[in-house]
Amino acid sequence: xxxxxxxxxxxxxxxxxxxxxxxxxxxAIGAIVVVASLLAFVQVVPTTIAGASLFDVLALALxxxxxxxxxxVVAAKSGVLDTTPDHTAGTSLAAVFGLVGLVTGGFVSxxxxxxxxLWPAGALVGAALGVVLAIVPREDSALAATGGGFALLVxxxxxxxxxxxxxxxxxxxxxxxFTPETTLPILLGVAGLLLAWVGxxxxxxxxxxxxxxxxSLLVSANAAGMIALLVVLISFIxxxxxxxxxxxxxxxxxxxPVTWFQPPGWDKYVIISAPLVWFHWPFVMEGFAITNAIxxxxxxxxxxxxxxxxxxxxxxxxxxxTAVFLTEYAxxxxxxxxxxxxxxxxxxxxxxxxxxxxxxxxxxxxxxGSSLLSGMLVLSFMLLPLVIITSREALLNVPDQYRDAxxxxxxxxxQTIKSVVLPAAMPGVVTGAILGVGRIAGETAPILLxxxxxxxxxxxxxxLNFGAAFTSSFPFVELSFLNTDAxxxxxxxxxxxxxxxxxxGVGDVGEGFSWGTALVLLLVVFAFYAVGIASRRYFDTxxxx
Amino acid sequence: xxVERGLVGRLGVGDSPVGVLLGVTLLAxxxxxxxxxxxxxxxxxxxxxxxxxxxxxxxxxxxxxxALAATVVTVLVLGLITIYLVAQSIPAFRIMGxxxxxxxxxxxxxPSSAIYSLVPMMWGTVVTTLIAxxxxxxxGVAGAVFIAEMAPDWARGLLKxxxxxxxxxxxxxxxxxxxxxLNPFMxxxxxxxxxxxxxxxxxxxxxxxxxxxxxxxxDAIASVPGPMKDGSLALGATDWQTTTAVTLPAAFxxxxxxxxxxxxxxxxxxxxxxxxxxxxQVLPDPLYDVFGNTETLTSLIASQYGIASxxxxxxxxxxxxxLFVTVLGLSIGSQYVERRMERTLGGDT
Lengths: 545, 349
Description:
Helix content of chain B: over 70%
Low-confidence stretches of chain B: 1-13
GO molecular function (chain B): phosphate transmembrane transporter activity
Number of strands of chain B: 2
Strand content of chain B: under 5%
Largest sheet of chain B: 2 strands, antiparallel
Number of domains of chain B: 2
Distance between the termini of chain A: 41 Å
Largest interface: A-B, 104 and 106 residues
Structural class of chain A: mainly alpha
CATH topology of the largest domain in chain B: MetI-like fold
Number of helices of chain B: 15
CATH architecture of the largest domain in chain A: Orthogonal Bundle
Shape of chain A: globular
Number of helices of chain A: 19
Oligomer: heterodimer
Order of helices and strands of chain B: HHHHHEEHHHHHHHHHH
Radius of gyration of chain A: 33 Å
CATH class of the largest domain in chain A: Mainly Alpha
CATH superfamily of the largest domain in chain A: MetI-like
Transmembrane segments (chain B): 20-53, 65-87, 121-150, 162-182, 194-217, 315-337
Family (chain B): Belongs to the binding-protein-dependent transport system permease family. CysTW subfamily.
Mean pLDDT of chain A: 81
Mean pLDDT of chain B: 84
Strand order of the largest sheet of chain B: 1-2
Distance between the termini of chain B: 22 Å
Radius of gyration of chain B: 26 Å
Keywords (chain B): Cell membrane, Membrane, Phosphate transport, Transmembrane, Transmembrane helix, Transport
Low-confidence stretches of chain A: 1-11
Strand order of the largest sheet of chain A: 1-2
Strand content of chain A: 5-15%
CATH architecture of the largest domain in chain B: Orthogonal Bundle
Number of strands of chain A: 6
CATH topology of the largest domain in chain A: MetI-like fold
Largest sheet of chain A: 2 strands, antiparallel
Helix content of chain A: 55-70%
Membrane topology (chain B): Multi-pass membrane protein
């Protein structure tokens, strides 16, 4: 038992008791300052709270936290706190504060001391100071001197109004001008982040554990930032687009005779009067016309659906066929590796280049103008490499035992592929295809060049046309389900519609219409992604069970 | 897995009339599409009939030939893209000579007097890509380290779909937000003289390239064999020491491939730049003025294809060639370092 507690205390050393609280307080204050500065920078929060300047409050908090950090280091030096600092803080701290010193030194010498052309010298002095402070003292002192010192410096600058309300800085050669409203949050935010970083190292008792804690704080904050970016982007669009998108939705019930078919032997049918729901959603059901009370994006939705259908029905057979040939028939060697390099190259080819290719190759051959068919083909070329890559990966993941067992039963190679390999690889193929579809559904650049005509049409492409007729010429019966004329007409699509609202400047397209279009586009793309991710989860759990 | 035979013999194309017929009809389809695209429906119908016949009579052969045909079409597409881009850009190169890539003085872009220099656009692409890389590379690799090495299960379950969703947001939506929100913000807060700047484009493109870097770098980090890390941990290293001293160096090739692909994405990003920039085909003055306005290669094409014809159109294709070559180089480079990583780590990873 006693060894157990001994081990535990050795491992947890420094992370218990007053050190943890003091270090934790430094980290918390640093984090709060970062978040508050960020919000102040984007002007979500007001810069004066209850008569006091927000920046002064934040600067005071920084100074207090820096004092706390210095107290921790003094206590650690005098042996009150049990810590394990290294003899030096290491290169990462030196690199970070060398950079900070470089910027600060240049800034101070140019701004405060007024060295107009000598600022590089100041910058070098600052950098040297940062590096020396980080490397020369023992680790705990170095952390206090760099992180705490920079926080004190920034706090002092803010509190003593070195950067006051009238301050303005127009750097030589840059078009931008910096004002206190933007500069102070940046300064405070950087200082807060660095303080939180060194505070986390102090909280874990310096040394190896401290470095791990500091790094994990930064990396986790970065991950949280990515989530925050996603949430902010989506909620921004959702909040602004929701109103225009749902404007004018009406629904209700009306009574109508409904025919219920009954099983044979009973009555043939009964007719009862039942309520039916009717539903009208102008934004997704209407086109763009002067007579419309609310203009909608229905043509663009129809266009996007047809583009996706067309691209998928060309790219999936081609892509899966290529993957089957490369994996099952071809010798693994020069040929397959060349095709692989080619597909990877195609995958990263910029979308606008596909558009140019369509413009040069497809458009002159198909109708000599923008057309739905060209759009479909160009998007299918974009989808093709992704389908090949994912299908090939899925096929390679099918264990060779499957093929051998089938071959041992005397089954031909194609039969093996058809009934053993392809079914086993299907999940990967399907998932890859759906994720790829999500990408091409939002693609704008290529269709800009080959698909589009009028930006705000009243109706979408009318591609389905079921009909049967007798004709006077051979073969005397005409069955049609595709309206080939529509394939050769220009069309619109959701991403293009959004682009058009930005550039066209049509008088009656308000900004609300754009936000609504963006939201619908986002919903369509995310619907594809949700299906793709859900099917991957489903297949994963099915494989594991 | 298979017995060595010649390509034709192994495909069975020569063995059966179905294979020959399929080949002939496909060839006819291709030829008609190049020579007389209006008539393509007839060979296509013949091809379809042969396929249907083949499926009933000789399924194996038909499938093989169709798979081969799909491969050929894929390779053909890449070849055609290259050929058509280069062919269309030749007039511009003929007018300007090497000046199209190097002319920096005087008038740089003037379709009316047939002067086309891609230097401002190349500079714009370089600057935006640098800014984007400065954002996407460190943050993306850090995100990948978090997902692969540090995250608890719940955080990983949250982050991986989140990164995929970020990658899924269409570029025009990013561009729209940049245009409607960031441009006015920058104009107001930093008193920019023009609407739109390279800086905003770089930041937006950096956010867009971020998920690419994260997901590919995460794959690379996760594929480092567990025993390598176990050895380090068994020696008493902390998780973070193991990550920096063992995992990241072992995954270095994969991580750099991820960064290269991210750069490729940033170079080729079109819509954000098109929407945000104010389309001035001049070099910023001074060159390092990232808050100034110029043009990128992609936005040049997207903003001028509609009004261009003749030599101007050809100059746009030249911009496409520069883009295509750059990104292809990045892609091949990243594949090379990835293969090297596979060789270094070896085994079943």
